Amino acid sequence: MESKYDRVDVPENLYLHSENEHNEDFGTGVYPISVISRKSNLKSDTVKVACFRMRRKSRCFLMIGGVIFLIIVILLIVVASNHNGSDKAPARVIEPSFAEEIKLKGLMFEPNVDNSPLIHYSIRDMKTYQKYLNQLDFYMYDYSAIHQQKSDYVNCVNESAPDGKACRLTAHDFGSHCTHINVYGYQEGRPCVLLMLKLDNDTTIDPFTSKDTEIKKRLHDRWSADHIGITCDGETALDREHMGHEDFWYENSVKQDDITYKPPTGFPIWSYPKKNPHYKVPAVMVHFNTVRTNHLVTIKCVAWAKSFNNGKPQDSKMYSVRFQFFME
């Protein structure tokens, strides 16, 4: 007859051990609890273990489903953020193809941020061209009519300012489009650039005459006998092609000139030389209406006078300036 101490069945997944690593029951068939442990099941994985620790399998599935859903939401947010960022920020890092030397006089342009000839921005993202707007605002402040109300300024019409006076040159002379309110055209992809011509007081200014047919051909109806003419165009044939020398029609259905200049005749000769500390450097606002996007376009502007570089100012760094557009 078997007693309560008869040998017991041991589950298959249990293994027995003692301190001396022998499976001993000392003939009783009863094993101390301290020497019994469950065999590890190699087929179990982390998910199964977690599930069996829960009272109901449904809770496990809900937990896994929630985690998967959260991961999907996070991925969608990241993808959407990257997509929106690519629409706004310039997609490529564009480097200028040349380094324009720093100029303290001669023909200069703004916005010249960080002394770089490249104006690179995304039309869709104001953050990419805010620095250019700030630079233009800085220089336009000098030409504000409010700051030229003093008796130091006079209206000059075909004559130089008297000694001790300065010719009045205000932002009104730069036209109505290239203004702070209109974001200087950058939002439309029609950027404005301010050109300034700073000359030494002893610089001789001898303008081209009506007999200089080549210059009149360049300036067309903008030629003036008492002005230093200004032209801007693509530096190469490819640049000129990317300048959009073709019909461009805007929402108001009015054909725009490729480039407009304000004042159209250029820099008035009577504005030179400097005679007053409040002197305003003569300037022209150039409005580029048809530059194509996603192209690196090099622009070259020239101030035209017969006395500049022996009649060839286009070959002089003093009387010409280059800069580049890359709009996205």
Automatic annotation (TrEMBL):
<keyword id="KW-1133">Transmembrane helix</keyword>
<comment type="similarity">
    <text>Belongs to the X(+)/potassium ATPases subunit beta family.</text>
</comment>
<dbReference type="InterPro" id="IPR000402">
    <property type="entry name" value="Na/K_ATPase_sub_beta"/>
</dbReference>
<dbReference type="GO" id="GO:0001671">
    <property type="term" value="F:ATPase activator activity"/>
</dbReference>
<dbReference type="GO" id="GO:1990573">
    <property type="term" value="P:potassium ion import across plasma membrane"/>
</dbReference>
<keyword id="KW-0812">Transmembrane</keyword>
<keyword id="KW-0472">Membrane</keyword>
<dbReference type="GO" id="GO:0036376">
    <property type="term" value="P:sodium ion export across plasma membrane"/>
</dbReference>
<dbReference type="InterPro" id="IPR038702">
    <property type="entry name" value="Na/K_ATPase_sub_beta_sf"/>
</dbReference>
<keyword id="KW-0735">Signal-anchor</keyword>
<dbReference type="Pfam" id="PF00287">
    <property type="entry name" value="Na_K-ATPase"/>
</dbReference>
<feature type="transmembrane region" description="Helical">
    <location>
        <begin position="60"/>
        <end position="80"/>
    </location>
</feature>
<dbReference type="GO" id="GO:0006883">
    <property type="term" value="P:intracellular sodium ion homeostasis"/>
</dbReference>
<dbReference type="GO" id="GO:0030007">
    <property type="term" value="P:intracellular potassium ion homeostasis"/>
</dbReference>
<dbReference type="GO" id="GO:0005890">
    <property type="term" value="C:sodium:potassium-exchanging ATPase complex"/>
</dbReference>
<protein>
    <submittedName>
        <fullName>ATP1B</fullName>
    </submittedName>
</protein>
